[in-house]
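FAQ: What does the model actually see?

It sees only this:
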Amino acid sequence: MVAARGASLRRQRGLTLIELMITVSSTGLVIGGAMTLMLSTRGAYEVGGTQSSLQEVGRRILDDVLADLRGSGLTQVAGQSYPAIWERPPGGQRGNLIATMNYEDAADVDETLAYNGNGDRIERNRGRVANEIVFQRPSDMDGDGLPIDDNGQLEWSGELLSYRIQTEPNGEFWLVRVSDLNGIESVSRVGPWISNVTFDVVYNDRSMRFGTVAVVVYLERINARGQVITAELEGSVVLRNTEEL
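And it is asked to produce this:
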């Protein structure tokens, strides 16, 4: 009877200090691992969410630009051929002329044809200086409801349209659409987080002014964790109002 009572007391004695420390350490490791996994999963979710948001914004911006360019075609104003593409860093001044749609600009055509080689345009253009494209769109200038004159030719407004990157006071980059009419500029914001934009005139055939403009937009945003999240999209558009030489 006494032996049985002693065994019962030993069973009720509980954990020793060493056993307790081992238990606490094991529990801590399990909880720590679970917390690390949870934070890692949450971080990956936040990165994926931000990147998805960037992709959505970038696609809308790209679609707007391509739709706007679609109506353009070869025009000339004061000796300058349009559409024309210049280097223009975000918030900076217009730099070198890269290309126009005019085949008489032989040097630009040759350079562009050489540059349009095979490969990934997104990767190839990643290191380029940001661009500005300037173009015109047909407009009803004689008020008859159609952008065509009495000779059946397209009527073009004196308005020059362009896309470029503008730096906001808070340092954020926005793609803007600029209307220049008689030297007076009107700026409208198209979309945020555009860190770079490039335009390429793609010549399909030297015998035709049949131009495709390829556009790449690069987006960059810092999320709540201070991580830099990036995205890039590419698209192209065939200019509608082109003609044979």
